[in-house]
Amino acid sequence: MTHNFLSGLTGSFAMPAAENPTVAMVEAAYRHHGLDIRYINCEVTPERLGDAVRGARAMGWIGFNCSIPHKVAVIEHLDGLGESAAVMGAVNCAVRRADGFIGENTDGKGFLQSLRTVTDPRDKTVVMFGAGGAARAIGVELAFAGAKRIIIVNRSAERGRGLADLLNSRTAVQAELVTDSAPYRVPAEAEILVNATSIGLYPDIEGRINLDVSSLHPGLIVADVITNPPRSPLIRDAEARGCRTLDGLGMVVNQGVIGIKYWTGIDVDAAVMRRTLQDLLL
Question: Rounded distance, CA 169 to CA 164, Å?
């Protein structure tokens, strides 16, 4: 009998990495579908990111994810970009193509699939906290999906202006930037609010975005990209104010499904992945 002891390799590069549950979710899908592939969660500092990508290339990895803070910086270490990643200027999923890695982005697509379970963003006004890699991906996908207006709330004027300029120049959405130090009050016309930052992520589980919670109004859809814990401070505050909420599990499961499809060509069972995260985190 012929045996194959060489498993396929995938993984994630992030800093910090210990609280990232993606490894459990993805490996549950691999087991469920009988795929001989491993997912290795790696803590990689910014100055070692290039080494990590070169190592993955040398060891024949079939793909990897990039999380905070590498989604933009990783681009210089890749061999090309997919269409959406090129527009966003951010990568969270690298895919083996021949001897190189092509950068794709599943963040925005995963978020959009989750959002569409409760509303269509077309013609909506969106408030989005953050202007990093996840925010760029989400903003571009919302714009492509027909959102009317995106208000970017970000502490860094330079990064925030870069995202607003990208959206205004490359899409049809109207984007504007708010950098005030005072807690942000959600305007009455806003229909969707998104936390696209890492604020509230374990271990800082009580971290809160700079938001005036009293301005959250019933009917507002509030979404958080935080997965650990799923019931982030923003989600809890929004539920207490009568808002409809979307935790980060939907986004991360959907982006995992899309990423595995890129790596293997297989459509995996999203329910298996979500149950795994719920068992771990809820």
Answer: 9
Residue 247 confidence class, pLDDT cut points 50, 70, 90: very high
Torsion angles phi and psi, residue 186, rounded to 5: -70, 125
Tens-place pLDDT, residues 190-226? 999 999 999 998 888 899 999 999 999 999 999 999 9
Segment 164-178 mean pLDDT: 96
Residues assigned a catalytic role: 71
Question: Which string of DSSP letters, residue by residue, matches 27-83?
Answer: HHHHHHTT--EEEEEEE--GGGHHHHHHHHHHTT-SEEEE-TT-TTGGGGGSSEE-H
Tokens 């906290």 belong to residue = 129
**Helix residue ranges, H only, 193-269:** 233-240, 248-264
240 HSE (CA, 13 A, CB side) = 10
E strands of the chain, at which residues? 8-14, 37-43, 63-66, 80-81, 93-97, 100-104, 125-129, 149-153, 174-178, 192-195, 221-224, 244-246
Residue 123, classified by CB atoms within 10 Å of its CB into exposed (0-12), middle (13-18) or buried (19+), is exposed
DSSP state, residue 4: -
CA 255/CA 192 separation, integer angstroms: 20
0.90 exceeded by pTM:
no
pLDDT in tens, 42-58: 999 999 999 999 999 99
